[in-house]
Amino acid sequence: MPLATSHREALIAACPLFAGLDGDGMAAVAQATVEVEFAADRTIARQGEIGTGLFIVGEGAVRVVRDGETIAHLGPGEFFGELSVLDGGPRNASVIADEPTICLALATWDAERVLREQPGVALAVLRVLAARLREATADHRT
Asked: How far apart are CA 30 and CA 10, in angstroms?
């Protein structure tokens, strides 16, 4: 069953990757996404392959697997696939549906267009990636 437009917009608004977007930025992202349904145990993204889009979990749940080890579980509003979209490199993990799942997918070429046309979207994405980089490189010594 397709996600209602209001639910789609709410997912994008709540997604940390797009935090703080204005109405124009949110509309641009919403218009560029498509809904994709995945059966339980279906691989959505495969480690080592070049990605062609990023995903926001709309309904259901997925697991993130790197080198055979589950490293995260994601649910509605959470996202994956952004690095491969931005740098054109291979996926650094696989993502598998834990149950029937609906995702909003943003194809690489559409993501690039939105980022060029909507500076607010680009800034939101940069802030999230900077925060992740800062967290990954922080000195956690006590």
From this structure: 10
Instruction: Give yes or no for a contact between 8 and 33, defined as CB atoms under 8 angstroms apart.
Output: yes
Provide the pLDDT for residue 72.
Answer: 96
- Give 49's Cβ-side CA count (13 Å radius): 11
**What is the per-residue pLDDT for 100?**
98
Measured in whole angstroms, how far is the alpha carbon of residue 43 from the centre of its chain? Answer: 15
For the chain, 142 residues long, the average pLDDT of each consecutive 10-residue run is 72 88 89 95 96 94 97 95 90 97 96 94 90 80 52
What does the angle CA 103 – CA 52 – CA 83 come to, to the nearest 5 degrees? 85
From edge to edge, which strands make up the β-sheet containing 62-66? 43-45, 94-97, 62-66, 69-74
Q: Whole-structure pTM over 0.85, yes or no?
A: yes
Which one, of 52, 50, 23, lies nearest residue 36 by Cα?
A: 52
The answer to whether the CB of 21 falls within 8 A of the CB of 120 is yes
Are 81 and 95 in contact, with CB atoms under 8 Å apart? yes
